[in-house]
Amino acid sequence: MRKPLIAGNWKMYKNATEGAKLARSLKRSLRDVKDREIVIAPPFATLPAVSRAIAGGNIGLAAQNMHHQDEGAFTGEVSADMLLSVGVGYVIIGHSERRQYFGETNKGCLEKITKALGSGLVPIYCIGETLGERKRGRTFAVVEKQIREGLAGLSRTDAKGVVIAYEPIWAIGTGKTATPQIAQEVHARIRGIIKELFGAGVARAVRILYGGSVKPGNVDTLMAEKDIDGALVGGASLDAKSFSRIVKYVS
Ligand code: 13P
C-alpha cells in the first residue's frame, strides 16, 4: 500500500521565528500520527530554524526548490548537499509558480529530479494545467508532456522514488478546488502514463498528491479517491489547526 503523504508548502510566508513557532505547534499536535507521512516546506532562509523545531519528531522537512549542480558560481542558488546539511529530506520541483515566474521547464526539472534522487532527497514533482488548457481539452496532453519530459530516462528504481503532485493551476490559491472526480480522473491518467513508461510495479508504488485549495473542509472527500495518495497544501498549511486537521483527514 502507498503511505499517504501530506505536505505543506509555505511558499514565501513566515520568518524564522514565526516558522519555528508553527513547526513546534505542528510537532505537538501531530506527534501521534503514524500512518501518514507529514512534510513541511518552509522558505530556504528559515530551514535551519524549522529543522531544529521539528527535530526528533515525525515531520519531514522539504525545500521549495534547488539547483541541480553540486556547487559553483550560481548566485542565489542552493545545492542538494546544502539542503541535506540542514536536515532536509524532500524537495519540491517545478512548482507552477516557479514555472510561471522563474521560467522553469520540464527539462530543467528533470535535471533537478535526477540530482535530488542521486543525493537521497525525495523529489516532489509538480505538474498541472492552466484554466485555458483545461477549457481547450488539453489537460491530459499537458500533464503527459510534463511527465514524459520531467521523468525522461529515469530508471525504474528512481521513478519509484519520485512523488508527483498534480496541481491544476486554476485551483491554486483561488479557493476553487478540483472536485474529487476531476482530480481522480487526472490522477488515474497520470498513473496510466507512469505504467506505460516504467511498468505496473512503479505505477502501483508512485504516490500522486493533489494540490490546489485543499482545506479541512474538502480533504476527506479528495482522499477517499483511489488514486489520490496525499495532498500538497498551500494556504491552509500556514495555520497549525487547519494543517493538523488536513493531516488527520478521515476517509
Ligand atoms: P493553495 O493550497 O493555497 O491553493 O496552494 C496550493 C499549492 O500551490 C501548493 O503547492
Description:
The structure is a single chain. The protein is an alpha/beta fold and 251 residues long. The protein has one domain: TIM Barrel (Alpha-Beta Barrel), CATH 3.20.20. The protein contains twelve helices and eight strands. It has an eight-stranded parallel β-barrel with strand order 1-2-3-4-5-6-7-8, surrounded by six helices. Helix 5 (106-119) crosses helix 7 (139-150). The model has no long low-confidence stretch (mean pLDDT 97). The protein binds 1,3-dihydroxyacetonephosphate (13P).
Keywords for this entry:
251 residues; TIM Barrel; 8 strands; binds 1,3-dihydroxyacetonephosphate
Topology:
Layout: E1 5-9, H1 16-29, E2 37-41, H2 47-54, E3 59-63, H3 80-85, E4 90-93, H4 96-102, H5 106-119, E5 122-127, H6 131-135, H7 139-150, H8 156-160, E6 163-166, H9 180-198, H10 200-205, E7 207-211, H11 219-223, E8 230-233, H12 240-247
Parallel strand pairs: 1-2, 1-8, 2-3, 3-4, 4-5, 5-6, 6-7, 7-8
Helix pairs in contact: 1-2, 1-12, 5-7, 7-9
The structure holds 1,3-dihydroxyacetonephosphate.
